[in-house]
Automatic annotation (TrEMBL):
Residues 13-110 form the Gfo/Idh/MocA-like oxidoreductase N-terminal domain. PANTHER family: D-GLUCOSIDE 3-DEHYDROGENASE, UDP-N-ACETYL-2-AMINO-2-DEOXY-D-GLUCURONATE OXIDASE. The lineage of its organism: Bacteria, Bacillati, Actinomycetota, Actinomycetes, Kitasatosporales. This is Dehydrogenase. It comes from the Bacteria. InterPro entries: Gfo/Idh/MocA-like_OxRdtase_N, Gfo/Idh/MocA_Oxidoreductase, GFO_IDH_MocA-like_dom, NAD(P)-bd_dom_sf. Residues 135-255 form the GFO/IDH/MocA-like oxidoreductase domain.
Amino acid sequence: MPRSTSPFAGRRIRAAVIGTGAIGRGPRLPALARLAEEGETEIVAAVDIGADAVGTFCDRAGIRQACTDLVTVCTPPTLHRAQTVAALRAGAWVWREKPPGPSLADFDAIEAEEGADGGPYAAIVFQHRLGSGSRHVRRLFAGRAMGRSLVAHCRTTWYRDSAHYAVPRRGRRHTEGGGPAMGHAIHRTDLLLDLLGPWSEVRVMAGRLVHDVETEGVSTALVRFANGTSATVVNSVLSPGEVSRIRIDCERATVELTHLYGHADDHWRITPAPDVPAGQAALWRDFGPDVPSSRLAQPRELIAYMRAGERPRSSGADGRAGLELITALFKSAFTGATVRAGEIGPGDPYCTALHGDAPGWAPHAAQEVPA
């Protein structure tokens, strides 16, 4: 945890909320309000195109007019670049909703506006890597306590019906960029990378199958990690039996996380190999005090980084890794080729748009994305 000091040390962090819809008034306001009760934050501003929505939000938050240190962006991803850049140029730190933006080009443009030393920085809402379970397993993997990781399975298989896609911005290329791989499964993708480290190559199949939209309904990926781990990653919004799951088989134990939207310690399971001593297995299973993954844990951590004047996790290269893998997923689905880490850069059409302007990316029920 950061230890140095900054201009934010010793006072409340003044926060602004951009977008007071379901995300802003749902998970974001309670988290910031709780931190305000703890003396960490003060919500000082809110912005929305809906006058009634922002008025109600301001009434609930007790907002008064003041200057701002932290801006939380809760708008659709295509608006993130302009809003985040404006906030950074004004000197405010930013905590923006996932997905971080519709393309790597947008992400890189935001990163270029960050401060060189001490901020301001722009972090992403990736709360699933937080909580006692994720922290404990990350430490075990970092120290190779259970040996090398060998095989991994990552599933985000959810269900979204036609009513979900009746909202105009959903399932549309220009507003969401991609389907479950981008908007639903990105939390599991981020957590998998946080546990296993960088990926090296990916090969993918994807399809629409059900809904008459512009984004995929399902994708299945084979991913190789730099440490040699082989993984399957399955993302879907066509699965009535919903589950979020990560399983990683190591040389001496299997680690599993099974949940839906959030997780606590009892969602994790560690199964040791038969020859592992009981005492050793007990240490692996000791997660300490249960701290669930939550939208409160991450802003609390972010504020600590602000006070220290240090780059927060889930920003910069750390925050970009998941978006790069998702971008490679789309490029592989459209081209049928294996895509390697680092190959999608300026001049590559997939750097500026997930679909890469590939033919066939248009509404058509039961049509598969070329693979």
